[in-house]
Write a structure and sequence with these properties.
There is one protein chain. The chain folds into 2 domains: 78 residues, 2-Layer Sandwich (Alpha-Beta Plaits), CATH 3.30.70; 88 residues, Alpha-Beta Plaits (2-Layer Sandwich). Helix 3 crosses helix 6 and helix 4 runs antiparallel to helix 5. Strands 2-3-1-4 form a 4-stranded antiparallel beta sheet, with helices on both faces. Strands 6-7-5-8 form a 4-stranded antiparallel beta sheet. The chain is an alpha+beta fold and 177 residues long.
């Protein structure tokens, strides 16, 4: 059965959008998903489903709304898609600290205008590459005060987006194997 990596946007950040990972796993299993695992507390789920990624995203979102009363954006990649994202790694030669190397997962490809805005927001030492439905961003100094980071972290891309650092991306791929 196909493995899916389910990425929830903006949960368990401070006191808002709190979801217990054991309760989330139980809710997803009750909804019919198989082999449900979570990673960290920040909304990373690995599960099995024969459904297409878009269907998995809709169903997970509905389960969260029904069970927890939260409207959470969900982005899903198959294990094979995540493996291709890791293999692509367009900034691997410069991004040496996995905590400062981010991948933003998008619900769909962004326009050339949005890509240009991201490139213009990057500080001189930062790097950004948009590839398909992902944006890779290297923040060698800091993520928190980066103008580039505020673009995918906000809601100005025009698509659903959620980011993970490279260490988390690699850990999710290992869990999905």
């Amino acid at each position: 059965m196909p493995r899916h990596v389910v990425l929830l946007r903006g949960i368990n950040l401070g006191s808002r959008n709190r979801i217990s990972m054991p309760e989330l796993r139980a809710a997803l299993e009750e909804a019919g998903f198989k082999e449900v695992e979570t990673y960290l507390q920040s909304g990373n789920v690995i599960l099995d489903s024969r459904a297409k990624p878009e269907t998995v995203a809709r169903k997970v979102s509905a389960v969260i709304k029904d069970r927890f009363g939260l409207e959470i954006a969900v982005v899903v990649r198959t294990r094979a898609e995540l493996a291709a994202i890791v293999k692509r790694n367009p900034l691997g030669s410069v991004a040496k600290d996995p905590k400062r190397y981010q991948v933003t997962f998008l619900s769909k490809k962004v326009s050339a205008n949005v890509v240009r805005e991201l490139e213009e927001a990057a500080a001189p030492e930062e790097r950004v590459v948009a590839a398909g439905r992902e944006v890779y961003a290297w923040h060698p100094r800091t993520i928190a005060r980066s103008k580039l980071w505020t673009k995918p972290a906000g809601k100005t891309l025009g698509v659903t987006a959620t980011s993970r650092n490279w260490a988390t991306v690699e850990a999710l791929l290992a869990l999905a194997e």
